Amino acid sequence: MTRWLLWLLAGVLLAGVIHLSTVLALPRAATHDAYARLQAITPVNKMVSLPASSSPVMPFMDPAFATAVCRYDLSTGPLKLTAPVSQAYTAVAFYTRYDIAYYAINDRAAGRKVIELDLMTTQQHEQMPEEEDVTAADRLIVESPTRTGLIVLKAFSPEPALMPMAERALAAAQCKTQ
User: What's residue 125's pLDDT?
Assistant: First the structure.
């Protein structure tokens, strides 16, 4: 009886290890992730508004938000993001190439009419000259853990009739190499 319990316990442990390793490896093994789907419709280092929520490019999007995406590549240098805020709510989220979120900010946390920040790798940040008269409040710098990734900008529309206002705010957003 004890022998069968040991075999059963070993089988359950082996199944658990296989299940956990499969779940953890799946994001790297997936070939049709968000980055790959957006690669066909977004140029590098340029903000592009996404179509309505019924689009197969990014399924399950909230219809109350207008969305824009910048697919970035920091190999040519740091990136400057400028995003005017909408009247209701604006949020910016940063993702690595493999869909890991590493930074997010919204209009209330920024405390300004325009969200402005510099995106760079750790090496690019270390190479920047120190400016004594520039403080962290003047210049927001985000360090990316990878050279490529996505910046997702969302603007909330409290009513369907106000969606053009949110879309105009996103249309004025820019992400470009410095």
Answer: 87
